[in-house]
Amino acid sequence: MAYEKINSKVVKVQLGAPVVARKGAMLAYKGEVTFVPHGMPGGMGGMAGMAGMAGHGGGGFGGMAGQLLQRAAGEHVSMMEAVGQGEVWYGFRGQHVTVLELTGQQLQVEADRLLVHDSGLQSSTVQVGQGGVRGAISGMASGQGLFTTQLSGHGSVAVVSHGGTFAIEVDPSRHVAVDPQSYIAALGQLSVTVGAKVGWRDAVGRGSGEAIQLQVTGHGTVYVQASEQKP
């Protein structure tokens, strides 16, 4: 593995092919390494569609679409690409690091949880689940947002969390519910939707997992952090 955990909060990457890391996450490096800004991942079709909603919606609906656009924009975190030969040490704000290996699977991960990943992985921004207006409002209330970053292919990914992560296996026989504040990533053929345990009017303004939950269904593994604290 090209990614070696030095301790619970630092990972060392042996460069061969370039890697893409969160801006400000490079702690040290050795060798001939160059760092260049990396373009925002993902297609903009979904955001363009939301822009259309904002442009044609009436007062309140247009305002809500505007908030959704902000949520979508928030899915993009400035990234830097490391190119060259050498070793780079990565960490971010003393948060715990978890390294995941993708062997052809699909990983859905919050952009603000991404620390570093192989540049060869395919990256896009996708909408979290469905649910129409109710789902949209629930997404805003949860703080989870409606968009997430999707990586796929073969390669390594390191994510950050508060207190480390634990893995929960998901199979088609029973879904897993996760507090939006604690959700880190979903690996495999999984669908993540935003659900409310209360009426949507009551859900607005409540970020706790007791009111708003992420429903994870399908087959794979969901990673949850040992805290409700966001980065």
UniProtKB/TrEMBL annotation:
PANTHER family named among the record's database cross-references: ALTERED INHERITANCE OF MITOCHONDRIA PROTEIN 24, MITOCHONDRIAL
Record-given protein name: Uncharacterized protein (AIM24 family)
Residue stretches spanning the membrane: none
Signal peptide span: none
Gene3D superfamilies: Mitochondrial biogenesis AIM24
One Pfam family of this chain: AIM24
Organism listed in the record: Motilibacter rhizosphaerae
Highest taxon, organism lineage: Bacteria
